Structures are given as structure tokens and as C-alpha cells.
Amino acid sequence: EVQLVESGGGVEGPGGSLRLSCAGSGFTFHDYGMSWVRRAPEKGLEWVSGITGNGGRADYADSVEGRFIISRDNAKKSLYLQMNSLRAEDTAFYYCARVGYRDYVFDFWGQGTLVTVFS
Amino acid sequence: SFELTQPLSVSVALGQTATITCGGKNIVTRSVHWYQQQPGQAPALVIYWDTTRPSGIPERFSGSNSGNTATLTISRAQAGDEADYYCQVWDNNHVVFGGGTKLTVL
Questions:
Q1: Of A12, A66, A99, A117, which has the fewest Cβ atoms less than 10 A away?
Q2: Strand ranges (DSSP E) for chain B?
Q3: How are the residues of chain A apportioned to helix, strand and coil, as percentages rounded to the nearest 5?
């Protein structure tokens, strides 16, 4: 059974940093691209960042480019999101998602971890 | 960047058919995927590549894509279908989501 479990969320002040983790199990982790997607309160889904299976390519939404860094450790079957220079608008549930098919289909999602940036 | 437009809300009577649209310029040239997010839960894939249902998704859920509009159709709507629905495409190394549609089953 495919499972994705996020951790690392919490409360931080503006300008602070947090590191999110996502542990994958039940599938060959390095065979799949992964992404982070967030949902802010009263807003819709927003893609944050994605990384290829071997970690060779990473892409970012304009809203986080230069502040967030996505990475992965395939030996540990884990995905990470280093979040720096946090802003109030980064407050959201953060989900990790597996890219299951071409054209960036997210076939499995974690339950999410909450990040709150108080202002 | 590519933009996707969804209605904020759609209402459907119990047992009837709900239609949720996703507008985008010449969207027919893109592969469109749909996700359901119920309150307090993670999103879940319900349609991918315009029309394909993942295993476990009821046949009541179907998709289409033509011209400037992709559509998610939910037949014989049930109370459990009440959720937010999002369309999504891949564009120039970025993922784009529509703004989301809240489906209410009356």
C-alpha cells in the first residue's frame, strides 16, 4: 500500500525557517517524481515545487522561487521542503504528492502538515 | 502562464447530474486531471488524462475535454460527493490548478 506521511509543520514568525519531510513507503521511491502542494485557509490548491525521481531537476512556483528548496534522499525514501524567509501568505496545509503518470498526474497524496506563519 | 477558470460553486439535487467546468485557452491541447477534496481530507485523484478513471473511482465520475473547456461530470450525485473539485494541467514545467469548485448536493 502506497503511503506518504508528512511531518515538520509548526508555527513560525515572518522571516523564519521550517523544514518539511515526507516519508514514502509501499512503492519504489526513486522511480517517481514528487511534489509539494499547499492549500491556504479559504483558498484553493497551489502547487509549490516538484522534483524528478533522481533529484536531477527541481521546479518552483513563482511565489516561492528563491525562498524554498525541494530535495529528496532516495536511500531514506524521503522528500523534503526547506522553507526560508517565511511570510504570512505561506500559512497553509502542505501536502506531498506522488507523480504517478505522465503530464504530472498526482496519484497519491499525504494527509498534510500545517504551517502557520504568524504576523 | 496558463490559467484555468472554474465556477466557485455548483449545486445538484440528490440523484441528479452535476457538471463542473474548467476553462482554459485551447485546453483541448492539454491533458486535464481532476481532484476531489473532502473537508478535512487530502485531495484524491478522480480523473486523469481528460477521461481516465483511477481504480476505485465509481463509473459515475467521467471527464471530457473539448475546445476551451474541460468538464467533470458526476452522475447520480450522492451526499458523499459534496467536496471541492479542482482541475489541473502541466504547463511549461509548472503545475497549474484551477481555483476550485465547491459542489453542494441538495
A1: A66
A2: 9-12, 18-23, 33-37, 44-47, 61-66, 69-74, 83-91, 94-97, 101-105
A3: 5, 55, 40
Q: What nine digits make up the cell of A119?
A: 504576523
Q: Between chains, do B43 and A45 touch, taking CB under 8 Å as contact?
A: yes
Phi-psi region of A48 (alpha: psi -120 to 50; beta: other; left: phi over 0): alpha
Stretch (H or E) spanning A48:
strand A45-51
Which residue type does A27 have? F
Per residue in B41-53, pLDDT tens?
999 999 999 999 9
**Do the chains contact at B86 and A47, CB–CB below 8 Å?**
no
How would residue A85 be classed by pLDDT, with cut points 50, 70 and 90?
very high
Confidence check: pLDDT of A119 > 90: no
Q: How far is B28 from chain A (nearest CA, A)?
A: 14
Nearest to A20 by CA among A71, A77, A85, A87: A71
Tell me which residue has cell 525541494.
A70
Please state the separation of Cα B11 from the chain's center in Å: 14
φ/ψ (deg, to 5) at A89: -75, -5
